[in-house]
């Protein structure tokens, strides 16, 4: 394994703080390294492997779709893209979809859509985008700018113009919602920022303010969407209707795809040539995503995500010795904040002991297992974690 890692260090850019593990195979919640050691995977490819590794239904669909059509460009319509758009529209408050290849790309497109909507409806000058402090929206220059955490900005100036940050505080947000603002972009549950669930009353009041001031509310559901929180989209917990929703990660179950969903009145701002993507929405990925969405959108499936998540949070609370300051989250998007900044150390030791998860900041452990995780697997994860913490 060391030889392979050395080779990786020679040929790959040094952008990730990787664990010293070379993965080779996966099945359900189990990942296996090149030496045959197995790990319980509660990182799930960072909320991507919604149905676990190599889900048989997904694999069968991949094989079938690969025999049919893989790519043809957006010069043409395809059944797969049209039908996936219909499914997502019917599962959301959006009316129209656009397909991209990642979460950052979906957010970047949503920011463009907000600006073109504002200029076409209100003239030039209404182009500022507000985002929340502690947010994470991606790594492209625009979405990095939108990310409300200074540590991600270092070295990359000048950032995009026309972005400002607000605290998750209604009065403070209100003060910044001036005539030049076209949109507020937020994650209903902040992922990278610490698994912070935004309060429903904040979301509801913010939406009212947005409507009054002709500001679009954009929900970044890249991490929280596609069943992760026990609802298909996390904004549903707050009974609001965002004007634009972005999603990615679990939508492709491991294949790259992102989507923008928007109300008709907003989507109407785009005309041919205003936005596009070579790969975005190709029939291969859309065909597979359709299969994944049809499994996850099932009401009983979503209820089981809530139930397993509740069980997991309860088990974390029951770990003896007051190890956690707070357990946060919804469904299977769970954060466990430690009293001390030892998240990375614990994450590494757990990985060695056979359990994967990730961290946010220095103090929070973050769990994003497959959405079909059993309580039996939760018990196994808790047993490893209990030993290490
Ligand atoms: N938005 C949120 C909320 C995310 O969690 C992420 C990735 O972690 C992104 C955007 C960026 O997605 P991607 O890495 O697919 O570009």
In short:
The chain is built from 13 helices and 17 strands. The chain is an alpha/beta fold. Pyridoxal-5'-phosphate is lined by residues 46, 102-104, 107, 136-138, 187, 191-192, 220, 222-223, 248.
Describe the overall structure.
This protein is an alpha/beta fold and 389 residues long. The protein has helices spanning 2-11, 44-47, 56-68, 79-90, 103-122, 141-146, 170-176, 200-212, 264-267, 283-296, 299-317, 343-353, 375-388, and strands spanning 23-27, 30-33, 38-41, 96-100, 128-132, 163-166, 181-186, 189-190, 196-197, 216-220, 244-247, 258-262, 324-330, 333-338, 355-356, 358-360, 364-367. The chain has a 7-stranded mixed beta sheet, sandwiched between helices. The model has no long low-confidence stretch (mean pLDDT 97). The protein binds pyridoxal-5'-phosphate. The site of pyridoxal-5'-phosphate has 15 residues, from helix 5.
């Amino acid at each position: 394994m060391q030889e392979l890692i050395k080779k990786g260090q020679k040929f790959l850019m040094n952008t990730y703080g990787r664990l010293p593990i070379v993965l080779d195979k996966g099945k359900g919640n189990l990942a296996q390294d090149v030496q045959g050691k197995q790990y319980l995977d509660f990182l799930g490819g960072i909320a991507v492997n919604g149905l676990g590794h190599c889900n048989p239904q997904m694999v069968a669909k991949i094989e079938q779709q690969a025999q049919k059509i893989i790519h043809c460009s957006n010069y043409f319509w395809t059944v797969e893209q049209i039908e996936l758009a219909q499914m997502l529209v019917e599962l959301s408050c959006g009316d129209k979809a656009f397909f991209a290849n990642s979460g950052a790309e979906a957010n970047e497109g949503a920011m463009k859509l907000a600006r073109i909507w504002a200029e076409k409806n209100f003239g030039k000058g209404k182009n500022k985008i507000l985002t929340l402090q502690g947010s994470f929206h991606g790594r492209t220059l625009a979405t990095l700018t939108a990310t409300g955490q200074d540590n991600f900005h270092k070295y990359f100036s000048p950032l995009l113009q026309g972005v400002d940050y607000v605290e998750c505080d209604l009065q403070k947000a209100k003060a910044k919602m001036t005539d030049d603002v076209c949109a507020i972009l937020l994650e209903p549950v902040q992922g990278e920022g610490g698994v912070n669930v935004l309060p429903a009353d904040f979301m509801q009041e913010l939406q009212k303010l947005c409507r009054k001031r002709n500001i679009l509310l954009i929900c970044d559901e890249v991490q929280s969407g596609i069943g992760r929180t026990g609802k298909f989209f996390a904004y549903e917990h707050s009974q609001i209707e965002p004007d634009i929703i972005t999603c990615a990660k679990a939508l492709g179950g491991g294949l790259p795809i992102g989507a923008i969903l928007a109300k008709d009145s907003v989507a109407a701002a785009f005309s041919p040539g205003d936005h596009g993507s070579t790969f975005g929405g190709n029939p291969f990925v859309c065909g597979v995503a359709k299969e994944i969405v049809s499994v996850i959108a099932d009401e009983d499936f979503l209820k089981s995500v809530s139930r397993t998540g509740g069980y997991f949070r309860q088990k974390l609370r029951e770990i003896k010795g007051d190890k956690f300051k707070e357990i946060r989250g919804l469904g299977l998007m769970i954060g466990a904040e430690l009293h001390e900044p030892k998240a990375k150390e614990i994450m590494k030791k757990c990985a060695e002991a056979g359990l994967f998860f990730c961290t946010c900041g220095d103090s929070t452990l973050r769990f994003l297992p497959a959405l079909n995780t059993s309580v039996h697997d939760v018990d196994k994860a808790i047993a490893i974690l209990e030993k290490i913490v």
